[in-house]
Amino acid sequence: MTENMKGQKEVVSTNQQEETKVYFGFLKPYGKVLGNNVFTYNLPNMDELSNVLNSFPTPVYWITSSNFILSPSIQNILTEHHVLIIANDAASNSTTFPSIDLHLLKEFLEEKAHQNAMIIISCNEEHDAIFKETIDTTILNMRKV
User: Fold this and answer.
1) Distance from C-alpha of 107 to C-alpha of 130, rounded to nearest angstrom
2) CA 120 to CA 22: how far, in whole Å?
3) Helix, strand, coil shares of the chain as percentages rounded to 5?
4) Less Cβ around it within 10 Å: N or C end of the chain?
């Protein structure tokens, strides 16, 4: 009977862990790219992202999905940093922030070269596929130059 109770406790414990497990991305540094520090933070926890953005020295360029700028934990940051909304986002046309097409990321990085800036790119699930296909490849290729 003791083994049966032990087995039940393990099942309950495993189920509780699965229910409370929430996936968030992580901050990924790429190092210097054309004289700027570049990071990605795909599917970020908004409180953690807010802390990261607050800790960066200026200038900071934050390229993000439009829904992230609606988060209460981000509101104090919006006026302090350069915010660009990912183009083709349904809400990108309705914001006061400029938009950027992720396929033009290389041109953006070249335009902002050697500012000793912090550039962070984050996106939601909607942009996850392009994030993995385009952004990572573009940044890694530019580091080789």
Assistant:
1) 17
2) 22
3) 50, 20, 30
4) N
pLDDT in tens, 21-60: 444 578 889 999 999 999 988 888 888 888 899 899 989 9
Q: How many CA atoms lie within 13 A of 43 on its CB side?
A: 12
Task: For residue range 97-127, list pLDDT tens digits in order.
Answer: 888 888 888 999 999 999 999 999 987 777 6
Backbone Cα Rg of the chain: 19
Return the amino acid letter for 29: P
pTM score of the predicted model: 0.75
Residue in the structure block whose two tokens are 């990605």: 40
Q: Give the pair of three-digit tokens for residue 3.
A: 């083994």
